[in-house]
Specification:
Order of helices and strands: HEEEEHEHEHEH
Number of strands: 7
Number of helices: 5
CATH class: Alpha Beta
Structural class: alpha/beta
């Protein structure tokens, strides 16, 4: 099944998935996937399939659920599956969760969570700088 059969294109890059509007855009540091509306048992599989394709690359993913109005228990499986897929593919990811999402997920610290897309991107930038600082002394020793 392709993304075209999963969701109908609506507007400028926005996909409608039975009450959830999804938009993905590539930023310098990550692909930001924003979901608005409702995530429930009726659309969770379609939304999950749409998200899966972003775990295939090497670009980090920021999943912005801050504007989700209704987040059913089925949504928890969506977030857990994304976490598993990203870990398996070695893709960094961050969740930006709104009140509806946080109410079900809680704050157990298992998932990489940021308060905003801006914070998530800043954290990714800081992680890149930290990795470069770790590698720089190794490069100097071999030169």
């Amino acid at each position: 099944m392709t993304v075209t059969t999963v969701a109908t294109r609506r507007g400028y890059g926005t996909f409608e998935c039975d009450g959830a509007q999804i938009r993905a855009h590539c930023r310098h540091l990550a692909t930001v996937v924003t979901i608005r509306g409702d995530i429930n048992a009726a659309n969770v599989e379609r939304v999950s399939e749409y998200l899966w394709r972003f775990t295939l690359g090497s670009n980090p993913v920021v999943l912005d659920l801050s504007d989700v109005n209704h987040f059913a228990a089925a949504g928890v499986s969506l977030v857990r599956r994304l976490d598993e897929d990203c870990r398996a593919a070695g893709v960094e990811w961050t969740l930006v969760a709104g009140p509806a999402v946080l109410a079900l997920l809680g704050g157990d610290g298992e998932l990489p969570v940021a308060r905003s897309v801006r914070e998530a991107l800043r954290n990714l930038a800081e992680a890149i700088v930290s990795r470069r600082q770790l590698v720089l002394p190794l490069i100097k020793k071999t030169a």
